[in-house]
Amino acid sequence: MRKVFTKLKVLKTKHILCKAWINGKKAKLLVDTGASNSCIHSDLQDHFELQKYGEPFQASGASDGKMEAIMTLNCNIKLGRNYKGKQAFVLLDLSHVNDTLNTQGVEKIDGVIGADFLKENNAVIDYSLSKLFLQLECF
Question: Which of 66, 132, 133, 136 is 20 to 30 Å apart from 123, CA to CA?
Fold first, then answer.
C-alpha cells in the first residue's frame, strides 16, 4: 500500500477544505465524512466538463427537503502532488451551502468530497497536521 496526502485548510466555520483539480481545472472542495456521495455544484457542470449519466433523482442532505440530482461519468481528479484518479460526482445545487458560508465570511466551494471517495481511498484525516492521507492499493 502507498500513502499519499493533500494539505487541508480548516476554515473559521470549522469546515475542512482541500484543493483539487477536476478535469484539469482548479476546485475547492469541502471534506465531509457525513456526505454519502461526492458532489459538484450543478452550475459548474460545464466549467469542469462533467458529463451527466443516468436519470435525475431526489437527493437529501443537511438542508430541508429533497433536491434534484444527477450522477456524472467518472472524471479525472487530482489531489495534492501524488493522487490522480477517477471519480464520479453527483451534480447538486449547492447554492444554499455557499450562501451559508458567505454569511459567515467564508469563500465559496465548488463541491464536496464525500464518504464514497474517502472510503474507496482508505482516507485518514489528521487534524493536527491538517492533512488528508490516502492509502492506495499498489498493483
Answer: 66
Taking a C-beta distance cutoff of 8 angstroms, is the pair 37, 45 a contact? no
Write down the pTM of the prediction. Answer: 0.90
Give the integer Cα–Cα distance in Å for 41 and 138: 32
- Residue type, position 11, single letter: L
CATH number at 131 reads 2.40.70.10
CA distances from 132 to 50, 56, 112, 127, 135 (A): 25, 31, 14, 8, 10
Q: Is 65:52 a contact under the CB 8 Å cutoff?
A: no
- Give the separation between CA 105 and CA 71, rounded to whole angstroms: 30
Residue 72 belongs to domain spanning: 2-136
Count of domains for the chain? 1
pLDDT value for 54: 87
Side-chain-side CA neighbours of 93 within 13 Å: the count stands at: 11
Q: What distance in Å separates the CA atoms of residue 84 and residue 80, rounded to the nearest whole number? A: 9
Contact indicator for 132, 52 with CB cutoff of 8 Å: no
